[in-house]
Structure of OmpA family protein:
Amino acid sequence: MMKKYQYFILLLLICSAGHAQYGKQKRADKLFNNLAYLEATNVYKELIENNYNFQENSLKLGDAYMKLRSPENAVFYYGDVIDSSGISAEYYYKYAQALRGTKRYQESRDWLKKYLETGATSVSAEETLEKDEYEPKTTYKLKKTDFNSEVSDFGTFEKEGILYFVSARAEAVAEKDRIYSWNGEPFLDVYQTDSTNMIISPVSGEINTRLHDGPMVISPDGKSAYFNRNNYVGNKEGKRDKEATNNLKIYKATLTNSTWSNVEELPFNDNSYSVGHPALSPDGTILYFTSDMPGGNGGSDLYMVNINPDGTYESPQNLGEKINTEREESFAFVDKDSTLYFSSTGHAGLGLMDIFRIDLKDEAAEVENLGEPINSNLDDFAFFKMSTNNRGYISSNRDGKSDDIYSFNQLNPLILKGTVTDAVNEKPIAKATVRLMDSTNKQLAFMETDEDGNFMTPIDRDATFPIEAKEIEYQTFTGTVDTRNSDDKDTLVYNIQLQPVNDLEYLAEIDTIYFDFDKYNIRPDAARELDKLVDLMTNEYPEMVIAIGAHTDKRGTNAYNDILAERRARSTYEYLVNNGIDENRIESFKGYGENQPAIECERCTREQHQLNRRALFEVVRMGD
């Protein structure tokens, strides 16, 4: 009887524990479904510690951490079960995304391959596998702004020196008495700050409510503002969708006596889907926005709608498959040159969400990743650029905490240009080769100067680069190009001077001066070569000073050959002087007889004797 009683008590305990875990499971799932991800993570952890529905709850916990943009934690919990049987292929993709968020790029690519091997179709995954290098065409300098808070700040817009942005700081907003269960922060509001005094205050009027508000953009004439908000108007929350979600909508407010009022809902909003992140074309005639409305490519897509002169709106148009993917596209911004900047989790990138751009005027243009430092391994979004200069703002959670606002200075590509000239006569040198190397001596650029000695190539900023210049008639030049502290420049000039080689055969392109046997007159072929030397000394190097040395073959006595060599040196000297070379520019002319033969031989052939009967030249100096 006692054994039966003990068994009964044990059974009750097991059932009670199981019931408790079941209750926790329901609570965790309810929190998750109600978007209370931060609180849900704690309950899922308890379930996993008790080994209750381990696989399912590990995946749900990974999902919750991805919603909270914490890929490190998501990788940990996904990784516990990702190799288990029965895992949905979609989790291969999620795991790959989480890995990318932790900069484990090769592992991420491996899991994308596994995802596609299951038969899944994904343009995003295929694009990511095809491209893994993102070299930006533009250089950006990034700096975290001084007006960030400890909570989320993002979505900057500038108008007439006033910066507008979204923040969860809940300062001076009486209605913000609620906490957003998604991440445990207060609901969002729109704030403004003067870029000079940095005094921060909520936007005046009817923009901010007790729910999420912002981002906001203002029309070119300054009279209208378009902004995001949960479905809330007239101090009353609107209807939710069938999943009890209060979707985002875009509203318009009018500026009256320096206050935003007369809030009205745009006609293409709907209770059953979200419409948000408004952006205006530079002329204010087109409104761009994000929506997960039916008929899109998947996730959220970017749309545009024309604004008629009377203030009415035409039908929204999807921006198409080149821009929109099966994942999420959002936060549009259109520059004055019709370049669309936007954020995406679907295009190949460096992190969870990257910023991209595309030229809307060019039908053949492709989407381009802005690369580092604009993009990071986490979320980068809400690109905004000033209309009057190359400065602007992005938002990012790259520090691993809440979203922050970063200012940037968009720098044009830096162009290295210069001229290669002769160090003596300062004349340009055509067809000189110029090589630019990196710190490991790897060649980055190879150039050949034009007829004016010019060269040009793009070059990275904030670094030093070894440079080398060569030409056959000159000594090799080596130096260093320094592009640090070049933010105020689009062009960096680096001129190079080459020192001529001390070899007249190269400089004048002359052949050796030869003499007939037992003769010292200047032969016609020798005269042609000497004329080249005259031209060089007259037109190229008018300050050049040379020395002449003449030689004989080994036939005849030493004494006779010494005299013959002297005569050959003199006849060469006289030819140059008679043809216009100042005698002071010939430092000496000497005969060396047979003592310095070009060819050493005991029984020399006729050809060898000829090679020894010659006159040679030496450069004493190139100029004063």
In short: DSSP finds eleven helices and 34 strands in the chain. Residues 2-33 form the longest helix (32 residues). The radius of gyration is 40 Å.
